[in-house]
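Question thread 4412

I'm putting together a teaching handout and wanted feedback from people who do this every day. The idea is simple: show students a protein as raw sequence, then show them the structure tokens that encode its fold, then repeat with a second protein so they can compare. Below is the first pair exactly as I plan to print it.
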Amino acid sequence: MSTSPEAMDSTDFEIPEPKGRVLVIAGSDSSGGAGIQADIKAISMMGGYAMTAITALTVQNTTGVSAVHLPPVEIITGQAEACLNDIGADVIKTGMLANKAIVSAVAALIAAHDDIPAIVDPVMVATSGSRLLDEDAIEAVKTELIPHAFLVTPNIPEAEVLTGIKIEDLDDQRAAGEALLKMGAWAALIKGAHLDTEQVFDVLVTRNGMRLFTRSRIKTKHTHGTGCTLASAIAGLMAQGLPLDQAVEDAGDYVHEAILHAPDLGQGNGPIDAFWPLRGEGEEGAAPSANASPEGMHNPFAGLGDMMKS
């Protein structure tokens, strides 16, 4: 569900001849719930094509991260350039970047390909509480990466760190979004799940206005990978030509159902179910609001339930 307190013209930005290609620059989660693994699932479920540049190998499960191995920076950027120089990309999405050197290198790469919109998920801490970004890298995220972002998707703690604003309500979420725009981002989605509210409010602030998305709160500890999944689902839909606000709405509905159908795996914060549409599940037994995509737009969920039953 969403409301539009202010008119938002989402036609300002269009991807020419979208082909659904998303380059993800992020870390690997050995348990499969978050990181590159979640990104590939989400983009594929949206009907997009996922490519990856892996920034970190984590030794990780639902209870936490016990070790991290970082490849050389030139291997990270080399993976990305290999994809961009051959297949190309309609959207770039970033996740775990680990340290200042990687943040700076990725920011430079995005700047060199400024014709491709970048969705920045400023990953700092895993759902389990494990830190995934060095303290000295935060300034580089603020001054080098965000100025080149089309969309930034922080949760409440991340938004507070990036903006210095204490977020306690919707007005604070909006203020944080506006602060990120002043840093150079074109849009910011301030996710509200960390606030103690009966419903969850996500606030999308762009240079054209603001939009509020409201969903019921699901009481569960199984939310591992929700941030990665949401940002990548948005990227997958945008890469196929969906306007930003519609991509945010459809991706949010998809993730909400994925949390609702979490498979209850692991001893800690378990993963969500990225593949729920394949089983024909959902609050109405079908797809989320992606069914309401503009005429002629590819609907990644259409017919999946029937196909799996046949």
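The second pair follows. I'd like the answer to focus on this one:
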Amino acid sequence: MIPDGAQTPAEDSTPSTTKRIPPLSPTPPPDPTSPTNPQPSNHADADPIVATRVLPEFKLQAIARLIPDQSESARGVQRFIATAKEQNICLDELFATFDQSTNPPEIGQVCLAVAGAGATATLFISTRDEDSSSSAQQRIAAIEKACLELGKKNSPAVRLAQALLEPHEKSAIRAFLDAGFINVGELAYLCRPASITPCLVHPSHWPQGIQVRQIQNLDKGSPDYKNLLVTLERTYQQTLDCSELAGLRSTEDVIASHQASGEFAPQLWWLVFDQGQPEGCVLFNLYPTQSSAELVYLGLSPKLRGKGLSTHLLDLGLNTLLDYQKEHSSNAASPWKLKEINCAVDRRNAPAIRLYERAGFTEFASRVGLVKIIS
């Protein structure tokens, strides 16, 4: 999703608030169940901490643990469940530790796993009692249990777990690292109002040998699908964006994630060819219910970088989005108003950040991306 080529973690499928936090990011989705092997009490010399699947009778209590503000937990739980239902988010993969010294047992720390496209799942954990060493160990146990169970799933299969945390959530980040996740970089989330007229110059003719065309058919095995596979693999070479992800996901899974981010609109996906060879792409998706669009990916192979093509590709996408909005805003059956365009970029990718800032994007959030191969 950046000019230098990138492979950001799978798109987050959790409920969003105002601005959507893309590829690794958003706000907590939902899903709880309860214990079969209750957890031992939390004493220093006690047996190892055990996390178990949350049973239905503990589901609301588990969800409440995922609400950061305890004073808002009652209303927060209902909002959480309602948002999950709206966005078709399943709440069945929820794992927790339990305090067996109470009757009935009380939930300790919780981890919710939300499966997404591209064989990925996003994890969300409780963050109360962050300074307690016992809570830290329980959090790790819940994460590890979630990953263990996700690795057993066949439908849908999950091969990579991910989490997106705010930089100040040090204890939560440490829990994921201690559970075997790796830090793939800090993502800056950017937004620009759609009302800003693109100020970048769109060339009437591309440089000699360069051809840019819309994707027509992304069925597996189609020429466009094969060209996109080759393109993505070439754009990941020497990337400045989440380079730690290299080799962790199949390119087929990456395409599935990109397509599932928002609403796939093939007229907003382009391939870039140099002398007939696929060397770049720019991909936008729509979020009609949020009146927004997302720059899912913008990448060029090393041979095309530094030639100003990223500027023109971004301009092509922004202008096409405006045309698309004009066409659909007058549709009485399903009017659509585009208000903003979002994207995410690795903070280390300075060329991409400069490009987006010139195009009117400003930062509104940041997340630390963490991933782990689980099967």
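Top answer:
Good format. For the second protein you could add a caption like this: The first helix runs from residue 59 to 65. The chain has eight helices and twelve strands.
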